[in-house]
Design a protein that fits this description.
single chain, 565 residues, alpha+beta, Arp2/3 complex 21 kDa subunit ARPC3, Beta-Lactamase, Heat Shock Protein 90, five-stranded antiparallel beta sheet, five-stranded mixed beta sheet, 15 helices, 16% strand, elongated
């Protein structure tokens, strides 16, 4: 009974070591994921030390040692697999053999066996796709119990003289089996609990990061400026509890909140060495307050003593920084450091997205200007010639055509947004068609058949005009007989189909900039609604051309049904 008590006392030493392991970087290797060679090397030294320590703290019994060496060997196999278990078991076994005694050889063999047994249990769970089970305390308990029973049998089989081996086993079997099994289970329980604490802390950190991001990303949508920065620093400081928060651009302080706000003033040029370094080197700068202290360059009595400065980067260019500060009386937590770095990464991505949206908006405006430039010159020339001819015979009609021309160009100039309604598009092309009808006379007939319920349909501006112009300019204008242009619209499930039909049938796949207007219309529809929408052309040569526009009835439907958007 006293031997059990003494072994449990020695086991307490191992548990102290386990506690120290759980507080050290070694805990990162107890992840349950596949270990790299470097990871296994670290664990080899850790568990070999544990096993050898188990021998040294053992108790001499009949020229042998009652010990808790098995804990290190079995756990090495359970956590790292057969190779690691065998390596640790062999190392600890050789060490035990070198200490001598009539059980030296048998104990060396049995320790190697225990490491290998732990590795085989690891393989069993891996092949059943249940690797996480090797961290269950009950698995460690049962595996170590079996390993220690195996050790007793090996001692009986290999140690001489047999009667002394039998006497030894009768004395040490129950104490060693109990102490090692319980010790391995408690060791793994401590490691598992510490991992759970870290996982919970990480989950809490992630939740807080996303919470702060959710509260502040809306500020960035209004631009990276002093107004947005002021809202952001207040939110970040409130949610994190740090001593102070600052946001800068690449030259000056945009906003500051917290300790030192009386001299770290918005609008001042950047003065801190850490911020300048972060901008210059495009890297995170951390002054922990101990080995590397933060010193305010403005006021020597400033209470801030540590700082984390994270650069905000867009397209590999630093556009500013986020700085978190703690006072000299408070330690800067590593989780706060990780939080600041993660938050800056989220902001950088948001700023990159905002820049992309700005560039996309500029591209849209450029495309609109390009379409307008295509329309205006030749249409204006033809319209003025038509009005001049009409004015000789019918002044009132000429005045009406001038009004239509004025409305057409006024609408062109006013269109700055990307989307409009079908009703507004029809009104715009209506002015154009009035002038073209006057130009062609009876040679052009226009038919519009659009249901009232589709007039609110949203589509990119300048969708219809370039297509109708193509139908007239490259179709109707070449006909000797009367021409007809039809504009029709209808529902088709969750989509609307708009058709522009002419009776010329002269469409040809464009091989030059002549077809640029249609290409731009198709591209802008796809950019707005997804690649499943756009323009299709059906042509029966010499008879008819149908340009079919596929538009979703509601924009949100296109976003739901087209994940490429």
């Amino acid at each position: 009974m006293s031997l059990i008590y003494n072994l449990l006392q020695q086991m307490a030493i191992i548990l102290v070591i386990a506690y120290l392991f759980s507080k050290s970087p070694v805990i990162n290797y107890f992840s349950g994921e596949k270990l790299r060679r470097k990871d296994k090397l670290v664990l080899y030294f850790v568990f070999s030390l544990l096993a050898i320590t188990g021998t040294y703290v053992g108790l001499p019994v009949q020229d042998a040692i009652a010990n808790i060496r098995a804990i290190g060997a079995v756990l090495a196999g359970l956590i790292g697999g057969p190779v690691l278990g065998l390596a640790v078991g062999l190392t600890a076994g050789i060490h035990r053999f070198m200490l001598g005694g009539f059980t030296a050889f048998s104990c060396g063999v049995s320790t190697t066996f225990e490491g290998l047994l732990g590795g085989l249990v690891y393989l069993y769970f891996v092949r059943r796709k249940q690797p996480g089970k090797v961290f269950l305390p009950r698995v460690a308990l049962v595996t170590t119990l079996v390993a220690e029973v195996g050790q007793m049998l090996i001692i009986l089989a290999l140690s001489q003289p047999y009667h002394e081996a039998l006497t030894l086993v009768q004395v040490i079997a129950v104490p060693m089996i109990s102490a090692n099994s319980v010790g391995a289970a408690l060791f793994l329980s401590m490691i598992r609990d510490q991992r759970q604490v870290r996982d919970n802390a990480g989950a809490s950190f992630s939740a807080k990061a996303f919470s702060v991001a959710d509260l502040t990303l809306g500020c960035l949508s209004r631009g990276f400026n002093a107004e947005a920065a002021k809202e952001m620093v207040d939110i970040i400081r409130r949610e994190t509890g740090v001593g102070a928060v600052a946001i800068t651009d690449h030259e000056k302080i945009l906003a500051f909140s917290g300790i030192g706000a009386d001299h770290h003033l918005p609008g001042n040029l950047i003065a801190t060495t850490e911020t300048k370094q972060a901008i210059r080197d495009k890297t995170v700068v951390f002054a922990d307050g101990f080995s590397n202290k933060f010193q305010c360059p403005q006021v020597s009595s400033c209470l801030l003593g540590s700082a984390l400065v994270v650069p905000l980067q867009v397209d590999q260019q630093v556009i500013g920084t986020i700085s978190l500060y703690e006072p000299k009386t408070k330690h800067f937590l590593n989780i706060t450091r990780s939080f600041g770095e993660g938050l800056a990464t989220l902001y950088s991505h948001q700023l990159l997205r905002a820049r992309y949206e700005d560039q996309k908006s500029l591209l849209v405006r450029s495309e609109l200007k390009l379409i307008q430039a295509q329309v205006n010159p030749h249409f204006l020339f033809n319209a003025l010639n038509t009005i001049m001819a009409v004015s000789r015979k019918d002044v009132a009609k000429a005045r009406d055509l001038l009004l239509q021309l004025s409305n057409f160009f006024r609408t062109n100039l006013k269109r700055s947004s990307d989307m409009t309604s079908l009703e507004e598009e029809l009104a715009h092309v209506g002015s154009y068609l009035k002038i073209e009808e006057a130009r062609f006379g009876e040679r052009l007939q226009v038919v519009i058949d659009v249901p009232v319920e589709l007039l609110d349909l949203q589509l990119p501006v300048f969708t219809l005009q370039p297509l109708i112009e193509n139908a007239i300019k490259h179709g109707i204008a070449d006909l000797l007989d009367n021409g007809q242009v039809q504009i029709k619209a209808r529902r088709a499930g969750a989509s609307a189909i708009i058709e522009i039909i002419d009776n010329a049938g002269s469409y040809q796949e464009p091989s030059d900039p002549q077809g640029l207007g249609m290409k731009l219309v198709d591209k802008r529809i796809k950019n707005s609604f997804g690649t499943n929408f756009g323009i299709e052309v059906d042509c029966i040569t010499g008879q008819t051309t149908c340009i079919r526009i596929n538009i979703p009835l509601r924009k949100e439907e296109s976003n739901d049904s087209h994940p490429d958007r």
